[in-house]
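Exercise 7.
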Amino acid sequence: MQKESWAGPGPVDRPDSKHREERDPMKVVAFNGSPRKDGNTAILLNFVLEELKNEGIDVKLVQLAGERITGCIACHQCAKNKDQKCVIKDDKANDYIAKMVQAEGFLLGSPLTFLISRPT
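Solution. The predicted structure, written as tokens, is:
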């Protein structure tokens, strides 16, 4: 899967579905929340991404394993600033938020360990 960033500041205006062949391909980003980059969660996400890719959809896979992402501290600065960014700048959360804003769809993959879903 491609891992480079999409160009552009945000969501793309899309004409109605009748003109799909005349516009940029739909974008979907998938986030693998498993600590195992090549584990079962990645295998299943890649299976779905390959099907989407076969349909002409631009796909990206983001591996969260080993990444430090600070949790929300409920400061509400994101709402006050209205810039779709967290004020915490020492992790990659804002990069991931930007990828979700640029995409028309996103997938979240998380392993089940003892039937409990977890972020990483």
